[in-house]
TrEMBL record, chains A, B, C, D, E, F, G, H, I, J:
Entry keyword set: Lyase
HAMAP family for the chain: Cyanate_hydrat (MF_00535)
Protein name: Cyanate hydratase
A Pfam family hit: Cyanate_lyase
GO molecular-function term, one example from the UniProt record: cyanate hydratase activity
Role description: Catalyzes the reaction of cyanate with bicarbonate to produce ammonia and carbon dioxide.
UniProt enzyme class: lyase
Record-listed E.C. numbers: 4.2.1.104
Stretches assigned to the Cyanate lyase C-terminal domain: 75-147
List of catalytic residues: 88, 91, 114
Domain of life, source organism: Bacteria
Catalytic activity: cyanate + hydrogencarbonate + 3 H(+) = NH4(+) + 2 CO2
Length: 147, 147, 147, 147, 147, 147, 147, 147, 147, 147
């Protein structure tokens, strides 16, 4: 993966300083997944947000500007990713894609869940049989426009 | 898409009888997405579940058996699906895959979210600015075994 | 291309009756491109719209129902289409994709042009040096949500 | 994306000087999308145009020459682009490709919309329900020659 | 290859009647390659041309109509064709593509050779060292429009 | 495209000295397309030819040797090239591949047009309706050997 | 694999009659691999050869004609074949392709081994350590033409 | 192609010293194709063989060690190679793959020709009608084990 | 997946009769995975084995013959299979491929594990923390031949 | 293959010091395949394990930290690997994938073998007919959750 130079810089600073994404969430007032997306250059921050991020990482303000640019998005090199953690999302789309489509259309009519007016949270659910990863996606339903 | 014959039969019966996935949820005692997965031959039902599904659709018990087989999974024809609703899940994986990976590893260590010991709910969130599709995934965290 | 059966039926009726897409536009009160999308099963019609379409084609009301279903979208067999007319749109995306992205971000900020809250018109521009095809797309700008 | 060196230079100068594509449009007397295409090395400028562009960006005339070369076109790395803004054009081609083909052939006969004798404008449509991106393409209709 | 039904019909009639493409050229007044393109559904004929073709093949006028439709073009199943005769054209593009591009741009400036306002002849050159296949392509040069 | 270093050197010299491919044709006594192929490392020159080429470009004899090596051929990065000028040759193969195959077999029997015992000329045809690019290919017909 | 209908017919007759490819070699006076190629529709036979083949298989002369047509060649469905016996040839090309290229160019100069003026034999070499498959290919060397 | 550094070194030494693969065959006592495979890092040499190779090329013993490593094999960048000489082997597999499979199974039963217990020779056959490239492959027949 | 007709027949008989693969193992005297491979047409049986299989499934001897043919192997439609159970083997190859290669070369030298002189067992390991699937592969080590 | 820098460092140290994977197994108290996976950055070590590995290789503790990071997994460049040793695992999946699936489902019901709660051993089986590579995989069976 061709990780952007700024991403490498910030991740190294984050590691060196021992800052977690949760710490960044507190410092910036935005969700940790969104902040990780900014760092991986999948989302763009406002000047204020960018400065808070680099400050929290102990970096000077000159690192803020690249975080404000609208990035060319898509963080993966491969059409079908080989990393097992990421692949599982491909598998979920393959296995549950049609069932989800059927249920969404029944509940909402013809349209889609927006991936732009969209939030995604990652939570840890403690469970005696083994902790669980909970992922909550919320996307605005966009009905197809007719013209 | 090569929809299985049994899937076509059941969807036609469902439409003819005006049964919703939510009705099936009530009748079977399982989540509607899981039931849709059984109908699209992405999951296998027990004999009791299969019979409840076909009965609720007004079909005879001979339709239950194909729902009990372990299917060859993967409901999509295309590596990158063209249907906009389904594609958005590919986009989410592409854009948020690395950020999610970073957050999950930080919270849980090296491992993955299971897509087998896994549940997925689709909910409608009413919102004055436009209703939202809420998708909740919960998968057991599987730490990498060392040996 | 695996054209849906209903599409073949409607196109045959359209040809037999000598109805143009422009005639359908008048009869249905919707744009001809949208109506063509319904016929090619890329968009779903309301019951009233579906009935107007099949009536205008001289077909009985039993042909209306398939037009009301939410289709599995994506009308092309090939990742990169070979048909020269359709390929040109791929070429435009390849050649002008980055310039458009730069201009849109400059005018609107980070976000996309919706392909769902979206209209597309095809017009004939008479020109002494050779008529021109004018295509006007209008999609709602969707700014990336932060969370 | 392997952005050409000259592109990086010009974009950096543009950013440093705070020049917009609209400013370049005024300075050069050409549309901003076309100018962006020259900068992204998808189109070639005349000597005069190239000089106007680099001057407007505050750069010396030695930067003009690379803009005059006929570039190897195609600005994207991926067959199906992952960037959501650019992908939407792929989606439009997939969903509306066949309907557009049907309408164009009905209006013009057998042939294509040229992507060479072609212009493309990006406009902002203010709209109380959310601003819209308007894209207007105009390509000469090229009828198939018979021989 | 999914050869169209009408193509199979016409080729069978051609074989049964012992008509050559050269005979068709004489009968129709169009080049044999163009006529073969019509038969393989890569080009569309006028009513008069279509009738001449089917008559020359000893078929009734009801076979003329499918030849008048604007076909979905692209006669090959494979991205890189395996048939050795056809593959050689892929090889020529791969090996000589860049040199041709360099020479065309030097002679004509930025633009392309049209594949629409285009003719293609296949000739047999007798040669004592072995006959040669001569292919002559002539396409209108289309300069890139600036706007 | 990973252009060979020697290619870049020679093209830069050619541009600096203002030499055209036609000039090279005169100086070397070989066709300009073949010379461009040598420069793009798709063909190999004899020592004499290589020396004439580098001399004509004002370069020392040490540049001649790389032109004499048998190159790994194939000048394009992409399976389906995105550059519009080069793509048109792919389109011609897709659209006219089967018709050409049919005509060649009828004229010559089973076999192929050689792409090795092969020449290719690019000519400018002046035409009041717009100049045309004429490409003449001549390849030895190779009949399939039986054994 | 979409085996041609005629191939299935002939292979069934061959099996029913217990004829080996070696028997066909004797009956037709051509190598068994070439005859297998005719049967798999990868090569075309003369009328006399075709008749000898079908006669040797105990079939009527009406089966001869399809063997005389110039087939669309390429007998495999997959770009990289999965069948282990056939895949090994892909592996040989991958592993030994560059070494063979180096040796051929050193022995012959720039050019290729023809796959058209070409023969291929399969022989059984008895060996106490395990019999060996011997494959002998002989293709005319074709030097690149200069022009 | 990402040629290994050691390969480039050895090929340069080979060229500078004017050593042929045939010379290496004499010096090392192994076939020239195998030696070329070692140089292209597709095969691994013993210490003695490696030293003989580098000595014959006039290089110091420090170049021997990389030739002794088990390489990651597969010498081509592309799934379907574009180089015409190498492509012909792909074509042979495509065209003659099924016929060879049929003949091998008939002669040997179910199993494959090994590409590991395998030798490959390249010979020049002088022929008044044009010299021929003769390639002899010999691979142990491996019958499928049953268990 | 295009399951062979004979496979469907046998699987239906197996289900109808309630025969397990373990039962077939007892009846045939071969491992159940190998028998499943014969049924899925990935391996070929002797006449005696084939008859035992069909007899154990309660079918007549006419079903035995197709099981004796050498099949075209490769049981999956997709390059990267979507079925989660089968995909895990792709994942294992991706993640552990290089480590396995390193260990095998260290233990055995340059060569491979045969997939032909090869056996594969599937066993159930009872485990209080959850049963485990144990897969044991045993393939003859094939050292690379030098020549 | 883009081998990570740390991997190259460790493999060089391992070679220089003459340490085998078996030696590392003794030193670290983990299986050699798992240790190789850590070195190839497919698995992450604890601090203690990482230090033991680098110490055993004679390297300073500063090399331990990169081995503790959760890597982006997938060690191969190619979708279908060309290296013969690694490819055989792809072949096994292709040929035995469906039979394994059938047997696993029969023994365990619907679910998969985990590739995360998973171990893999490589052993050398001495055999007078040729040593064998034995690979033992053990993965927890994960039944599909219903919800």
């Amino acid at each position: 993966m061709a990780i952007a130079e700024i991403t490498d810089k910030l991740l190294a600073a984050k590691k060196a300083k021992g800052v977690t994404f949760a710490d960044l969430e507190s410092a910036v007032g935005r969700d940790e997944v969104w902040i990780a997306s900014v760092i991986y250059r999948q989302a763009s921050a406002s000047e204020e947000e960018a400065k808070k991020i680099v400050t929290a990482l102990g970096l000077g303000p000159e690192y803020a500007e690249p975080l404000m640019e609208c990035p060319l998005k898509g963080s993966l090199d491969q059409t079908i990713p080989t990393d097992p953690l990421i692949y599982r999302f491909y598998e979920i789309m393959q296995v549950y894609g049609m069932p989800i489509k059927a249920v969404v259309h029944e509940k909402f009519g013809d349209g889609i869940m927006s991936a732009i007016d969209f939030t995604l949270d990652v939570e840890k659910e403690e469970d005696p049989k083994g902790d669980r990863v909970k992922i909550v996606m919320s996307g605005k339903f966009l009905p197809y426009k007719k013209w």
